[in-house]
Amino acid sequence: MNQNSPGSQSTEDIEMIDIDDVPLRSKVSQNGRLALPNGDTYDEDYGASDDGSRGLLSGSIERSRFDLPMGKIWPQVKGIVVESAPALLMTTVSLLFTGKLLDKVSHWDAMRQVDQLIIIIPVVLNLNGNLEMNLSARLGTAANVGELDDPKMRRSMIFGSLALLQVQTVSVSFIAACISLVLGRFVPRNGPAMVASEVGRKSGLPTFVMVASTTMTAASLSGILLGSFMCTLVVICRKYDRDPDNIAPAVASCLGDLVTLILLGVVSTILIPFMHTIFPFLLACVVICASVTCFMYTWRNEHVRPLLTEGWSPLFGAMVISSGTGIVLDMFVSRYEGFAVLAIVISGLPGAAGSILVSRLSTSLHTAKLALEHGLPSFATQHKHPEPSPLLTMATLLAITLPVEVVFLSILDLLGWLELPFMFIVISIAFFFCAVLSSLVIARLLTNLLWSLNRDPDSYALPVHSALMDLIGQLLLVLCFEIVSRLGIKVRKTI
């Protein structure tokens, strides 16, 4: 896919039609025909070289009906189930350990002394998760339309994307540190850490340098590690004919939180003894110089240069929303036992499911636009079974994530981390269902809205969607704890 935002002329042809049946893995060959993974091509005169008979872009796109017999539904959703279910299950396991780690990290000396570090955790986690998901979505679309098949273009796009990632992480994490410093002076603190945290709140400039240096360093290191991993994952998916849209966003969402939280905890612990020295300032200067170098490289890379000026507004919008999430976490992490462990999953898993939907819809829109741009008003699908409609995709993802949530609660019980009463499990699953449904509805509406506004959903949708789901998930969890508390039910940590 071209990294520029969707062209207005082609967008007008696509935005008001269904893109349910657009083939997701195809590319335009040098002769202008739409090439398929099996070597067949579409052209305007002859259609596909297989036996497909259903035109996709002949003035309007035919609907893939949701009320198909079950025998016809399964072939459509098989790829989503087979590829997304393991990714979402891995997401849950990763989020499980992230939640447990957050519960531990929130009581470390660095977090107790500098309260802004607790407030900024959701912001930094959401920031890195957003950037990694943006990266995976862009590369997933590029892979599905065949742009990563050319080795030279693949290297240029990957290295350019990694350099861009450094510029984005350092820039937004610095501003997030500024916001957390302001919020830390006004947010009430609950629990035994209140006295110690007041010291951090009144430290002024040393506190700001400490928080900024910690967040920028952790975000930069996370970008290097996770960015490289996500690029490798997308290339491997393309090589083995797996749709990265079903795998990469969920993996980026879960690993981004875990790795970033580990790095944030480690860096803050290392820097806290040097808080009132020049060392945090020097470290911040090194990170900024590295990001400037990455900016210069990105500017010279034609494949990612447009992204230097695009996609910033959703990142900053997501940062503001995540600041609200940080306030919720700061206020309730000490009030309810096990809140941190449960909050990560009730926010992260619905967000991961929604990110898969955004990535699939975006790829379909880009593929339809690409076909129109190359003069292919009608072509037949290479598959005997059409791609699932957005509604069917949403139902499939919802059906996948609910059992995964049950697995998560079962793992908590088996590990003995939390003592969960049966009534709490029932109520929490009900709220989790609401969170997943909200995530999928928001994902679809947001993707369609951004496309109609000539904004690339790969860059604009995921940050806002992820931040909203973090906030909605934690608010739903607070409501869940309030209800069970009124019923006299308590969740207890056993270890």
From TrEMBL:
<dbReference type="InterPro" id="IPR006667">
    <property type="entry name" value="SLC41_membr_dom"/>
</dbReference>
<feature type="domain" description="SLC41A/MgtE integral membrane">
    <location>
        <begin position="345"/>
        <end position="480"/>
    </location>
</feature>
<feature type="transmembrane region" description="Helical">
    <location>
        <begin position="162"/>
        <end position="187"/>
    </location>
</feature>
<dbReference type="InterPro" id="IPR045349">
    <property type="entry name" value="SLC41A1-3"/>
</dbReference>
<keyword id="KW-0472">Membrane</keyword>
<feature type="transmembrane region" description="Helical">
    <location>
        <begin position="424"/>
        <end position="446"/>
    </location>
</feature>
<feature type="transmembrane region" description="Helical">
    <location>
        <begin position="467"/>
        <end position="489"/>
    </location>
</feature>
<keyword id="KW-1133">Transmembrane helix</keyword>
<dbReference type="GO" id="GO:0005886">
    <property type="term" value="C:plasma membrane"/>
</dbReference>
<feature type="transmembrane region" description="Helical">
    <location>
        <begin position="339"/>
        <end position="359"/>
    </location>
</feature>
<keyword id="KW-0812">Transmembrane</keyword>
<dbReference type="InterPro" id="IPR036739">
    <property type="entry name" value="SLC41_membr_dom_sf"/>
</dbReference>
<feature type="transmembrane region" description="Helical">
    <location>
        <begin position="207"/>
        <end position="235"/>
    </location>
</feature>
<feature type="transmembrane region" description="Helical">
    <location>
        <begin position="278"/>
        <end position="299"/>
    </location>
</feature>
<keyword id="KW-0813">Transport</keyword>
<feature type="transmembrane region" description="Helical">
    <location>
        <begin position="391"/>
        <end position="412"/>
    </location>
</feature>
<protein>
    <recommendedName>
        <fullName>SLC41A/MgtE integral membrane domain-containing protein</fullName>
    </recommendedName>
</protein>
<feature type="region of interest" description="Disordered">
    <location>
        <begin position="30"/>
        <end position="54"/>
    </location>
</feature>
<keyword id="KW-0406">Ion transport</keyword>
<feature type="domain" description="SLC41A/MgtE integral membrane">
    <location>
        <begin position="121"/>
        <end position="264"/>
    </location>
</feature>
<dbReference type="Pfam" id="PF01769">
    <property type="entry name" value="MgtE"/>
</dbReference>
<dbReference type="GO" id="GO:0008324">
    <property type="term" value="F:monoatomic cation transmembrane transporter activity"/>
</dbReference>
<keyword id="KW-0460">Magnesium</keyword>
<comment type="similarity">
    <text>Belongs to the SLC41A transporter family.</text>
</comment>
<feature type="transmembrane region" description="Helical">
    <location>
        <begin position="247"/>
        <end position="272"/>
    </location>
</feature>
